[in-house]
Write a sequence for this structure.
């Protein structure tokens, strides 16, 4: 049984957690978050998405703060904090990856996304000089689409000590500064908003959600989450396509308020 009296903040992942597979939000979910806010609960989002593609969903659920790009950028109360990839490390990696011309690489600068090749279902600006863009605009995240196991091994050998990676959806390698983790971003966001992890319920589904699931007062994985996330969770909610987050909040939080 959840002690609802201690829940002051909700932090939720977007893709495969809050959003349906078709990237929509149901009216039920929007209504539940409106009710949570009326009850004085703060709403926050933590996502691998960049701000420009997460903003519409944050507005729909009335989010008070947001962590984007896996913790590389935090936007809260008109404050913004970035954890960019060091330019020297970005240059080294991008130059090294030129040896593999078939690799599909995307730079997330925070405001725009640039890629060396077209990326399906992802709007990018094509560029044959990603290194120049890194110098001009900075880099929050480097994405590499993995077509096989060899591609992963090739990229891993080029990572410097100040970089780490996660794999999303089984094929997308997300490379970031070691200071830019989702949990570090959430901690910063909670501190800015005077919220405590112990008074927070977190919802997620993937590898980078495991740490916040463990570290927040209540960690919830949706039923379509990876096994490791479900193993780390205190509770399992329904799937993203059945409004699992909304149903959990209705049953476990709002019903007791």
């Amino acid at each position: 049984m959840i002690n609802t009296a201690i829940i002051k903040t909700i932090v939720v992942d977007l893709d495969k957690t809050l959003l349906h597979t078709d990237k929509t939000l149901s009216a039920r979910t929007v209504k539940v978050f409106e009710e949570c806010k009326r009850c004085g609960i703060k709403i926050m989002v933590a996502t691998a998405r960049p701000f420009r593609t997460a903003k519409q969903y944050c507005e729909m659920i009335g989010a008070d703060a947001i962590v984007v790009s896996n913790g590389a950028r935090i936007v809260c109360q008109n404050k913004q904090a970035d954890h960019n990839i060091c330019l020297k490390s970005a240059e080294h990696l991008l130059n090294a990856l030129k040896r593999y011309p078939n690799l599909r690489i995307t730079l997330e600068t925070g405001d725009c996304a640039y890629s060396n090749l077209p990326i399906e279902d992802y709007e990018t600006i094509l560029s044959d000089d990603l290194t120049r863009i890194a110098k001009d605009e900075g880099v929050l995240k480097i994405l590499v689409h993995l077509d096989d196991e060899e591609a992963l091994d090739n990229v891993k050998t080029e990572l410097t000590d100040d970089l780490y990676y996660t794999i999303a959806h089984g094929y997308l390698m997300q490379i970031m500064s070691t200071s830019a983790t989702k949990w570090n971003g959430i901690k910063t966001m909670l501190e800015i908003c005077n919220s405590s992890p112990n008074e927070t319920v977190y919802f997620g589904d993937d590898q980078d959600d495991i740490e916040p699931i463990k570290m927040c007062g209540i960690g919830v994985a949706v039923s379509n989450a990876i096994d490791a996330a479900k193993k780390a969770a205190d509770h399992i909610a329904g799937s993203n396509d059945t409004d699992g987050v909304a149903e959990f909040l209705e049953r476990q939080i709002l019903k007791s308020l």
Notes: The two ends are 14 Å apart (CA to CA). The mean pLDDT is 93.
